[in-house]
Design goal:
Elements: H1 2-21, E1 23-30, E2 33-35, E3 38-42, E4 47-53, E5 59-63, E6 68-72, E7 76-82, E8 88-94, E9 102-108
């Protein structure tokens, strides 16, 4: 019993330490646009992008700069991990709506999220 409790506590601590080290940023896809279209994240840290597709059609998150590609199914949430990244601008877009679904990840020392829609 004691060993089982110890293992459960250890798992909880590992989970909490990972969540504390990995900051989460919410991006919403609606009407073939990303909101916010600009996020600012901290340099040299791994972060989690939680992308919620509120459209009734699929989209594909694509970024040559971030080396990421993921299908975003309609009315579902998807997770993409990025980083650690050095300071700079990293563009992303929706492959099925490249003229409207566009955004940028700005990596800086501050790392606070800002909207620029």
């Amino acid at each position: 019993m004691t060993k089982r409790l110890f293992n459960q506590c250890l798992c909880c601590l590992l989970f909490l330490s990972f969540n504390a080290a990995s900051k989460e940023y919410l991006i919403i896809l609606k009407d073939h646009l990303f909101y916010p279209s600009q996020i600012i994240i901290p340099a040299n840290k791994k972060v989690k992008l939680l992308i919620e597709n509120q459209d009734s059609t699929p989209e594909e998150f694509d970024s040559f700069d971030l080396n990421r590609e993921k299908v975003l199914y309609p009315n579902r949430k998807s997770i993409i991990y990025i980083g650690p990244l050095s300071k700079g601008h990293y563009e992303f877009f929706g492959e099925f709506s490249p003229n409207t679904a566009r955004g940028v990840v700005i990596v800086s020392d501050e790392g606070t999220q800002h909207a620029n829609n």
